[in-house]
Amino acid sequence: MAKLSSNARISPKERSKSTETPETEKMAKKKLKKEKLKKPIIRLVFADPKMGEKDNIEVTIEKKLITLYSLQQIDSQIDKIRIVRGELPLEVEDIEDEVAGIETRIEKIEAEKESMENAITEKKNIKVDSSVKIKRYEEQQKNVRNNREFDSLTKEIEFQTLEIQLADKRIKEYEIKLIGINETINESKVDLEEFTSELVIKKGALNDIIAETEKEEKNLVEKSKENQQLIEERLLVAYKKIRKNAKNGLAVVMIERDACGGCFNKIPPQHQLDIRMHKKIIVCEYCGRILVDEAIDDAVKKYE
Which helix (H) or strand (E) holds 266? Predict the structure, then answer.
C-alpha cells in the first residue's frame, strides 16, 4: 500500500472529517437544538375544554385566518346587539343637545331681560332727578336778580323737561322689548319642558334595552379584546381599517357561490385555490375584505 508523501495536499472537507470527534458532534447537535428553540412562538387561546386552558402553538397563516375570522364573528354579534338599539342613542344625544341649547338660550335671554330692567330703572331715576331739579330751578326763578339768571334757569328747566321726555320714550321702548323677551322666555320654557319629558322617555327606553343586553355585550367585548391580543398589530390595524370602511362592519368574509361574501363580486378560480391553500392572507380585489373558505369557518366552530 503506497504511503502519502508529506507534500500531498488534503482538502478542507477531508481535514474537517479527520478532526471531528464524538464530542464535537454532540456540541453541534446541542447548538442546532438551541437554534430551533429560539423560533418565536405566539400564544393562541382557544375556548376548547379538551385543549386545556391555554395551548402554545406556532402561528401559521391558517391559524391567523382562524383568529381573524373568530374576531369577526364576535364583533358581528356585538354589532347585532347595538343594532337592536336602533337610532335611540342618536335620538337621545340629539335631544340632550337640544335641551342644552334651549337652557343656554334662556340664560342669555334672562341676562338681556335683567339688563333691560336695569336700564328702565336707570331711566326712572333720571326722571326723578330731573323732576327734583325742575322744582329747584322754579324756586330759584322766584328769587332772580336779573333777566339773564331767569333765562338761564328757564333753559335748565327746558333741558330737564326734555330729559324726562327722552327717559319716558326709552322706558316705553324697553317695556315693549321686555314684553317680547318675556314671551320668548315663556315659549322657550315650554319647549324645554317638552324636550325634557321626551328625553326622560327616550332615556328610559334606551336604558331598558341596554339592561337587557348589557351582560352579553360586556362578555363579547371582553372576548373581542382577548382575540385582538392574539393578532399581530399590523393585521389588527388592517382589520380595523377595513371594518371601519365597510357599511356592514364585515372585514373577514367567506366565499359564497364563488363570490366574495362582502361585495358579491366573482372570485377567479386561481384566487379561490390560493384561499383554500391557507398559505397567505388574500383580500378581495374589489372591496378589500379578507377572504376565507368554509374550512376556516368549520375550524372556528370547533372552538366555540
Answer: none
Tell me which residue range forms the domain holding 142: 88-216
Kindly report the CATH number assigned to the domain that includes residue 133.
1.10.287.1490
Q: What one-character DSSP code corresponds to residue 257?
A: T
Cα 80 to chain centroid, rounded: 18
Q: Where among 187, 216, 245 does a domain terminate?
A: 216
User: Within this chain, do residues 205 and 239 fall inside the same structural domain, yes or no?
Assistant: no
Question: Can you tell me whether residue 293 is helix, strand or coil?
Answer: coil
List CB contacts of 186: < 8 A, sequence separation 6 or more.
none
DSSP helix/strand/coil, 290 = strand
Residue 157 lies in a domain: yes
Q: CA 82, CA 76: separation in Å to the nearest integer?
A: 10
Question: pLDDT tens across 214-263, in order?
Answer: 788 888 888 888 888 888 888 889 888 988 888 888 989 988 888 988 88
pTM: 0.49
Instruction: Report d(CA 77, CA 71) in Å as an integer.
Output: 10
Q: Rounded to whole angstroms, how far apart are CA atoms 73 and 79?
A: 10
pLDDT tens profile 117-174: 999 999 999 999 999 999 999 998 888 888 898 899 999 999 999 999 999 999 999 9
